[in-house]
Automatic annotation (TrEMBL):
Regions that span the bilayer: none
Family label: Belongs to the ATG16 family.
PROSITE patterns for this protein: WD_REPEATS_1, WD_REPEATS_2, WD_REPEATS_REGION
UniProt-listed GO biological process terms: autophagosome assembly
Domain spans labelled Autophagy-related protein: 23-218
A Gene Ontology term for the protein's cellular component: phagophore assembly site membrane
Species this chain originates from: Rhizophagus irregularis
Name of this chain's protein: Autophagy-related protein 16 domain-containing protein
WD repeat start-end pairs: 288-329, 330-371, 372-413, 424-455, 457-498, 515-544, 545-576
Length: 581
């Protein structure tokens, strides 16, 4: 039997058997390293040796049994012969032979017993051997499976260096690309900073240009108006007719009415007119839901016979103040109506819209008379001046515009530092304005110069939602998101009173409060649908009343003194009335 040499087999084997030699070498190396089957092999060899010894001993016992049987047979034969002879010596010898026979029987019994034990042990050893052979077979199969797995894993391992090299090449390419992208990002950041700087410069230049253009426009309009005045004075000199100077008149000298002979109409009501006893309305006489969208604004006419509402459904509705019936529906707006107001003759209604425009409707025809475009942001306020020759608009684009209705274009643009939520003329000619802004500040403007007269900062902690002028023209009422109302004295620009209550919360960014017609009370709607009445002469909360269930967006006190109109975000309009005080 030849011996196997791993080195010789590896060197002299054919290519077809090379993998078997490699496998055997690896298994030998692994067995030498791990000694996985050493104990098993040693146990197996020990059992085989014991089995051989038992077989030899069994054979010897069989021979001994055979010789003992023959010896027993011979002794029996001799006993029989001695019995036949019958001599005393033979009898003695027979007795000895029987003793020997008995001893042999006992020895034979011991041999049978030992043989049986050996046979049982042989069976046990055969069982153990069989189990070891089965285990060896399973181990061989496991060795074969592990060898195949080892071969497959070796093949994979052989492929890994190539994959690692490819990955390293890919990683290097990605690192180079990442470095390139980092450089490009750095360049883009620098370019973005340059563009931002350039954009800031262009924005400043654009604002400067816009201011210059506005100043030029204002100068041209002023020159045009001066030329008209010179022409009028020339005609006056030629005809001998005296024309009243229209310079600014102080608030306390505003006349009760102004007559326009050239218009051929009667008188126009202005602030300061007496309207009789004022009623604090506490009972709802009419409750309606006229719009298809949220209501943003409500306003009474100057004679108290009508009131108007502006809605997110892009319409303005005109109501009879007595019956609550809809008299007209004014359409034409592209977006939501944010504010409505009547002119002093109750012939026109102005509506500010989210489509960056304001529109004027003529109530007799129900049609749009003018569309005022020029803002670049939502228009939140639109009001007539006292003689209805101008409209003042305030916008989210941080500008206030004055529109000449006879010329049909903007005659003054005032630039502010914050979005304008509401603007009101302080005189009938509209030469002085007051505006409330998103930055919580109240500002006063001179329309003729386009400059601010006074800016009140810090009077509110939230944006100003509405501005109202008292009937005598001496005070300004502001409503704010900080849930307070302030009354400012126009002579000193000081906050005269702060109105607040534990339950009062402003319900919207455009929520509007108002004075009573006699200027003694202030009304405002709250977030929970409650209307609050403050007595400003006594500086206290006079009364509260509630019939709305949604935040109130605005209230308007009828000039007749006996009614109040309110609207909420849930499209509900209430007409309130009460007894005489």
């Amino acid at each position: 039997m030849s011996t196997f040499s791993p080195t010789g087999a590896s060197a002299n084997s054919t290519p077809a058997g090379n993998w078997q030699g490699d496998l055997l070498v690896k298994l030998l190396v692994r067995d030498r390293r791990e000694k996985a089957f050493t104990d098993f092999v040693e146990s197996y060899n020990s059992l085989v040796q014991k089995l051989g010894k038992f077989a030899e001993r069994n054979t010897a016992l069989e021979l001994s049994e055979k010789s003992a049987t023959e010896k027993h047979t011979n002794l029996l034969r001799e006993v029989d012969i001695l019995r036949e002879q019958g001599s005393p010596s033979n009898q003695k010898k027979t007795a000895e032979l029987e003793q020997q026979i008995q001893a042999l029987k006992e020895e034979l019994a011991d041999l049978y017993k030992t043989r049986g034990q050996n046979a049982q042990r042989l069976l046990d050893m055969n069982d153990v051997l069989r189990s070891h052979e089965e285990a060896a077979k399973k181990n061989q199969e496991e060795i074969r499976r592990l060898a195949e797995l080892n071969q497959a894993l070796s093949a994979k391992v052989d492929l890994h260096p190539q994959a690692i090299r490819e990955k390293e090449v890919t990683i290097q390419l990605l690192q180079d690309e990442n470095a390139t992208l980092q450089l490009e990002i750095g360049k883009i950041d620098e370019r973005m900073k340059d563009l931002e700087r350039e954009n800031g410069q262009l924005l400043q230049r654009w604002l400067k240009k816009m201011n210059e253009e506005a100043e030029k426009m204002n100068e041209a309009n002023q020159f045009y108006e001066s030329a008209l005045e010179v022409h009028a004075k020339a005609l006056e000199f030629q005809s001998g007719v005296v024309i009243v100077d229209k310079e600014f008149t102080p608030m306390n000298n505003v006349p009760k009415s102004i007559t326009f002979p050239e218009a051929g109409t009667g008188t126009i009501r202005t602030r300061g007119k007496d309207f009789g006893p004022v009623i604090i309305p506490t009972a709802v006489i009419k409750k309606i839901t006229p719009h298809d969208g949220e209501i943003h604004s409500i306003a009474s006419s100057y004679d108290g016979s009508m009131f108007a509402t502006g809605s997110a459904d892009k319409t303005i509705k005109i109501f009879d103040s007595t019956t609550g019936q809809v008299k007209q529906t004014l359409s034409g707006s592209i977006q939501s109506i944010m504010h409505v107001s009547f002119n002093n003759t109750n012939e026109m209604v102005a509506g500010a819209s989210n489509d960056n425009a304001a529109r004027l409707w003529h109530l007799k025809t129900g049609r749009i008379r003018l569309t005022l475009t020029g803002h670049v942001g939502k228009v939140y306020s639109a009001r007539f001046n006292g003689d209805s020759t101008k409209v003042i608009t305030g916008s989210h684009d941080r500008t206030i515009k004055v529109w000449d209705l006879q010329k049909g274009y903007c005659i003054r643009t005032i630039f502010s530092f914050s979005s304008c939520n509401d603007v009101v003329p302080l005189d009938d000619e509209g030469t002085t304005l007051v505006s409330g802004h998103l930055d919580n500040n109240l500002r006063f403007w001179d329309v003729r110069s386009g400059k601010d007269i006074k800016e009140l900062t810090g009077i509110h902690l939230g944006q100003i939602t509405s501005v109202s002028v008292s009937p005598d023209g001496a005070k300004v009422l502001t409503n704010s998101r900080d849930n307070t109302l302030k009354i400012v004295d126009l002579r000193t620009y000081d906050v005269e009173q702060t109105l607040h209550s534990d339950g009062y919360k402003t319900g919207a960014n455009w929520a509007r409060a108002c004075f009573s017609p006699d200027g003694r009370y202030v009304a405002a709607g709250s977030l929970d649908g409650t209307i609050f009445y403050w007595n400003i002469q006594k500086s206290k909360l006079e009364k509260t009343t509630k019939d709305h269930i949604a935040p109130i967006c605005g209230v308007s006190w009828s000039p007749r003194g006996g009614q109040l109109f309110s609207a909420d975000k849930d499209r509900t309009v209430c007409i309130w009335t009460g007894g005489l005080r």
